[in-house]
Amino acid sequence: MQHLTDFISENLSELTPIWDKLKNEIGQLNRERRFLVHGFMQYYLPHETITTHVKENGKVTTKKQTLKEIKGFTNKLHHLNTGENGINGEFHTLFTKTRIDKWNELVNDENKIIYKVNDKIISRWTGK
Hints:
Elements: H1 2-11, H2 16-37, E1 40-43, E2 49-56, E3 59-66, H3 67-82, H4 90-106, E4 116-117, E5 120-121
Helix pairs in contact: 2-3
């Protein structure tokens, strides 16, 4: 994530606000994921809550979550990946388009790239 952050701030600064928002969401979801994946877990039937414990900053942190919250976490993760401005959705297309447009500014016509999505040209350079 740090390499991508550095690349965006150095070369594609117009994407910084979008990337910062995505990066913040990734950080929040990663913290939640740590509790579920790496935490020591305990639950008691028939209660629908799970208590997990992880080590953070040298101390054990406890978090209690309901099954509904865990399902919500899964939905947020899916949305971050493919939803509006999702990492593998609109953000990826915008990131690639911006990189190609920057490339096309630096090279001669022979080496320029036309970027198409669903047979629609979205790069600034269209080959004409």
